[in-house]
Sequence to fold (451 residues):
Amino acid sequence: MAATKGESNALAQLAQAALALPILALPVKAGAAEVGEIGFTLLGYKERGLMTIVEPVLWGRAQFMESWEVQASAAVDIISGASPQLVSNASGKPVQTITGASIEDHRGTGDVKLTKRFGEFSLAGSLAYSKEEDYESRAFGVEGRLDLNQRNTTLIAGYGQSKDRVGSSDDPTLDEPRDTKEYMLGVTQVISPTALVSSTVVWTRGEGYYNDPYKLTFTFFPSGPPLLVPDVRPDHRHTTAWLTRFRNHVPSLHGTLQADYRYYSDDWGIRAHTLEVGWQQSIDDRWSIRPALRYYTQDAADFYSPTVTRPPAAVHSSDQRLSAFGGLSPSLRVILRSNDRLTFEGTLGYVHNAANLHLGGSGNDAFETLRAYYGLIGVTYSF
Amino acid sequence: MKIVVLMALAAFTAACVPVAPYQRAFLARDDMALDGNPGYMKAIEKTYSAKEAASGGAAVGGGGCGCN
Fold:
């Protein structure tokens, strides 16, 4: 005898909950016979006085043949405006200077990931490619996940490799390699019916060309001629990034706490902390809002200085992205579930990076405050 | 901060009670996902990483960027 509609809905919801994983490849929504999603996102980013970026992203993911899943995305960065190229103390103190005409650059990226599930174990392989006028990157990754303890615990291990080519739109002869190996270990643990935590560590070992071919430092001295020095960085970069993420739904408040913390360190002397806390509040069955605040702080690289010494050091950069500074970034996202298949999202955010936001004070005085706004709109269709 | 995170992780793990499949409805919510919408994650990633020295921590195999 066929099941009634009410029994079918209850069975569907129970099956969906039973299949729920600590990390869902596809969020399951009650009532939809879902095998995949496709979506489109558009980012607009504007720095005060500097760069503007527009980035459309097309993405999709789908399950097939019961134990396979494929994910893919493609994006184009359309960059225009100015990027600081010179740090000069001609005015008496080091300041960033834009020396050239406004730029316009396009960067295309694409990636695909294929996952196969073998009972409690899944194995994924991914490929990524990006190309812009002065940079090309080819990468692959392999990732394994093992579910234990009735899928309350998931162990994660991964390996990736990237082979990049660095060029310069100012110097057509520049064509240098940069190769990176990546290693990842992690664990996700369900804590309760409403909370989970995930912690992953990624180590990278990079060798090759790290200089920024566009950055220069121009330093005047009390006596003698000034020095104009190009950006020269070490030929290796070893990094550690430890990311811990916590999610806790509070049913009585119809909201979910989302907290992410990342510790970063590298052999350039940089230590950084990133903390983002968000609260996603359901307004009703269709509308949600998510206010969030992100705080970032980093120490300076060992070879960073806004001025050069005489004679200049073998390794030196005045790129303020390597200096000591901190940043606050509030954002607000609004989510509308139009029906079981369509979801719309809109996000507005502000980025404020400044020397006086460095943890513990003592940010670099030469750091020029960055003020930027961004907005994203997105639509997702489930099928 | 690292010690605080380690202690919190240890406390969370010690407090864990196995959650049966029929109790996992809340865990299946969109807002409980560790990663957001893939389009949003891809677009927002470089918003911050292009202006900061730190990056990574969530995945491998993503490739590099000439973010000048």
Q: What stands out?
A: Residues 5-28+48-382 of chain A form a domain with the Porin fold (CATH 2.40.160). Residues 337 and 343 of chain A are 4 Å apart (CA to CA). Chain A has one domain: 5-28+48-382. The longest helix of chain A spans residues 5-19.
